[in-house]
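>> received
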Amino acid sequence: MSDTFRALVIEDQDGKQKAGFKTLSVADLPDEDVLVDVSYSTLNYKDGLAVLGKGIARRLPMVGGIDLAGTVAESKSPDFKPGDKVIVNGYGLSELYWGGYSQKQKLKPEWLIKLPDAFTMQDAMAIGTAGYTSMLCVLALEKAGVTPDKGDILVTGAAGGVGSVAIALLAKLGYRVIASSGRAETADYLKKLGAAEVISREETMGSGRPFDKERYAGAVDCVGSKILAAVLAQIKYGGAVAACGLAGGNDLPTSVLPFILRGVSLLGVDSVMAPREKRIEAWSRLATDLDKSLFADMTRVEPMTNLPSLAADIINGQIKGRVVIDVNA
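>> returned
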């Protein structure tokens, strides 16, 4: 077996971050305890930023890719042995630590989770950080008491990776889901995932006031900024919003009124550094609550060589659903 392999490496070129394919050897990899033969990674919004040199990588050189699924080749950890199928989501991959856009990678054992029996490695990356984040959002809403009988659930940024999986999960769990998207052409796709209704970005804004008519029992927000502010203004008394994204910006132009007059909860959802027990709970629920028959409609597989153009597409809002990256193609 060859000691060399291919990876997408982000490096400094004339003061700017540039990504390019390089041939590496195992000796080039970080000094971590578990060597993984990587099969698949994914494309997330953060991955797009990293590949385009938008400052996600905080150490250089950096191998991109915040997700990976593969097979353990060597292990110094008693928790993993050669042949184990594993997945990794987040933990600073592509920012502080080398990530999944590589045919081999060395990783800390505490980052690894064994692949649930319900999924293939391609399935796991069809879910990826986006789907795992969606499940964390659903768990947060459940724990906040937002049940299907309370009313409609809104999902913003619905045609993206997080939004797509969130719709599928919520619909299967019995919620009536309203999908908000800036792309009218995705309406049929969103309804196939389980959305009862699809509304435009403009309709999502409501009146634009910080306190609006009560409409939703809860929401999963992937957008942030003015959209999140408008959603908070329309949440019913005692409802909650699970916020996990900032595709529309990291500001929040709202007031305290929804919180102090309607008891609305804003639930911050972080997937990058979530504790291991929460990750295991999320993946266990994904194994039972996500309809795998939807993967074909939600997912496409692309070779790693296409990453530069795919990165531009996801940042420009031109990606629908999930993109799985075959690192060996």
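>> Residues 121-143 form the longest helix (23 residues).
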